[in-house]
Structures are given as C-alpha cells and as structure tokens.
Design a protein that fits this description.
heterodimer, A: four-stranded antiparallel sheet, globular, B: mainly beta, six-stranded mixed sheet, five-stranded antiparallel sheet
Chain lengths: 114, 115
Amino acid sequence: SAVISQKPSRDICQRGTSLTIQCQVDSQVTMMFWYRQQPGQSLTLIATANQGSEATYESGFVIDKFPISRPNLTFSTLTVSNMSPEDSSIYLCSAQQGMNTEAFFGQGTRLTVV
Amino acid sequence: GENVEQHPSTLSVQEGDSAVIKCTYSDSASNYFPWYKQELGKGPQLIIDIRSNVGEKKDQRIAVTLNKTAKHFSLHITETQPEDSAVYFCAASNYYGGSQGNLIFGKGTKLSVKP
C-alpha cells in the first residue's frame, strides 16, 4: 500500500497568480498522476507525471497551464498557472505501482480562485 | 477511447437493505474494473476490483460482477450500514491493448443509507 500526503489541503488564490501543489508518497511508486475533480463530479485525468522526463498530458490540458515536476519516485508537484475562476476545483494526486493495480489517492487540494 | 457510464447518480436505501450500482463501458479491450469509495473531503479509496478473466468477486458485504459480453459490471453492497454512505465511482482501464491504460471513471453514485 501507499500513503499519500498532499498539500495544501485548500487555498484561496487571486486570479492571475499560480499555486503549486505538492504530493509526497511514503514509498517508491512507479506511476503518479494528477486529476481534477469539480465538486460533485467525476475525476478527470490531467497528466501522468513521469519520473525524469516531461509529463504526459491528456487532451485539453497543456504544460504551460499545468506544469508538473517529478524529481524522484516519491514526490511530484502540480502548478496551476495564471489562475482564473474556472480553475476552481479539487486537484488530486494519485500513485500506482503499475497499470491495472490499485490507485492510491491523496486527500485532495480544494482550490478557489477569486 | 474508453467511455464509462454509471447509474444511478443517486441512491437512497434503508439500513440493512442491498444497494446495486451499475456501469457500462465501451472499449471491449478493457480488462481491469475497480470500484472506489469517496467520503466527503477525502480522496477516493479502492474497495474492490475485478479483472476480465473473472466473472464475480466478493469481499464480505461487497461483491462485483462482470459481464464481458454485455460490457457491464456492477457493485453489490448487502446489509448496508450508515457508514456505507459515500460517493462510489466505477472505473475501467486497458493496459494490454496498446493504449495508455489510464483509469477512466464513471460519473459517480451518491449512496445514502438511512438508519
């Protein structure tokens, strides 16, 4: 199993600013992902965080808006850049040891952009 | 790409009754089907999963069934308790089909168990 610590748990930010969300896993994991979840909605994959290389982004998400780092096998960050109110959402970090295995999630970061 | 439909969106049952949530998927190559429970203010947590070489799996009060021909799978919770109240998500993925194999989630079912 893996325990994921995600911070901050919530933040209120001014439009035009950027926020970096951190995700720390208590063990080395092969795969890390970042999701967005609108309140009461499903999870949408933003990108796969690849260790030592550029993240793989899903359709509709771009690196300039959501830069991701993954410097090692236990840590990743997601930055939400040049925020607008439409970026208000819950952002979730996830980790898996391999495809088709259990995905572990952080508790999420509730972001409000004003 | 894969598309996962989940029904119902809300479900209310009396304590002790059974609850059934159904999902359909579109990609016949999908081979892994997990179910997640998300409580308020927390991240989703895996409660049970099934792979395409198995038709049914049980874990105490929870069971999942898979019908590959019809491309649907269901979550069954028996003897429901108030602590089962949460949002449940089904998901599907296909790693061995040459695709990225990421999890595709349904829209979720909000289950309320009334004491």
